[in-house]
Amino acid sequence: MKGKKVLLTGGTGGLGLGVTPAVLAQGADVTIPYHNPKEVERLKGFLSPADFARIQFVATDLTHEPSVQKLVDEMGQVDVLIHLVGGFSMGKTYEYSLEQWQNDFQLNLTTAFLACKHSLRKMVTSGYGRIVTVGSRGAVEPGGQLAAYCASKAGVVALTRAIADEMKGTNITANVVLPSIIDTPANRAAMGADHAFQWVKPESLAQVICFLASEAARDIRGAAVPVYGNI
Q1: What are 181-205's pLDDT values in tens digits?
Q2: What is the per-residue pLDDT for 190?
Q3: Widest distance between CA atoms in the chain
Q4: Banded pLDDT at 95 (limits 50, 70, 90)
Q5: What is the C-alpha to C-alpha distance for residues 75 and 133, in angstroms, rounded to an integer?
Q6: Which of these CATH numbers, 3.40.50.150, 1.10.340.30, 1.10.560.10, 3.40.50.720, describes 5-227?
Q7: Cα separation, 193 vs 183, whole angstroms
Q8: What pLDDT is attached to residue 203?
Q9: Nearest to 123, CA basis, from 176, 77, 68
């Protein structure tokens, strides 16, 4: 990805701590939208001073279309979209509120749609693009008390594969990774660390994402790649 312009959403989050350094190591110029300045400062602790020249942080509401459109337009060119934004939630379906359901779809699916839509505008114009989204194992193997999470992540898979089909005949690809539990600080805090050795390391998932985002993956379109670790 040397010299490529990369929009990396969720780059300051738990998964981003592994993905952002990996993308920068590929030689990309990276734009990261954020909403929490504390997460930006945390990420900087994982980067080298040389990285700072090739990364910019932009405060953005990824659920608000005018904000996403402005972000992409100010980038000028988007060669690669890596969409990490999302959130996990659970609860019994008969107890789950409509507000919770809508929030899950906003965070997991609406952000993916808006990021993909506006990145594609630039990619279609330039004739080149790589889109990589993050679904979940739950998108293809739904579990109890995870209805909203699994349904919204299944939507991400469907969205990504639909884009891949639309872009046939071009040099624009779209693929999605399906991780199981990712070894992030948040997951360790929520579930303990006893089984973390079986989980997917962010750095490991980053290698899969970087490959799919590279020129080398030109012939991979609409793939839903399982990255399950040892679970």
Answers
A1: 999 888 898 889 999 999 999 999 9
A2: 85
A3: 51
A4: very high
A5: 19
A6: 3.40.50.720
A7: 9
A8: 96
A9: 77
* Amino acid identity, position 101: W
Half-sphere exposure of 168 (CA within 13 A, CB side): 5
For the whole prediction, is pTM greater than 0.70?
Answer: yes
Give domain limits for the chain: 5-227
pLDDT (0 to 100) of residue 103: 98
Structure tokens at 96: 């789950």
Distance CA 123, CA 25 (A): 23
Nearest alpha-carbon partner for 35 in 73, 68, 4: 68
The confidence score (pLDDT) of residue 221 equals 98
Percent of the chain that is helix, strand, coil (3-state, to 5): 50, 15, 35
Quote the pLDDT of residue 60.
98
Under 8 Å between Cβ of 57 and 34: yes
- Phi, psi for 230 (deg, rounded to 5): -110, 25
| Distant-in-sequence, close-in-space partners of 204: CB < 8 Å, separation ≥ 6 | 18, 227, 229
The arithmetic mean of pLDDT across residues 205-213, rounded, is 98
Q: Is 92 exposed, middle or buried (0-12, 13-18, 19+ CB in 10 A)?
A: exposed
User: Can you tell me whether residue 7 is helix, strand or coil?
Assistant: strand
The DSSP line for 2-36 is: TT-EEEEETTTSTTHHHHHHHHHHTT-EEEEEES-
Q: Kindly report the length of the chain.
A: 231
CB 135 within 8 A of CB 154: yes
- Tokens in use for 211? 């490959």
Q: Can you tell me the mean pLDDT for 62-82?
A: 98
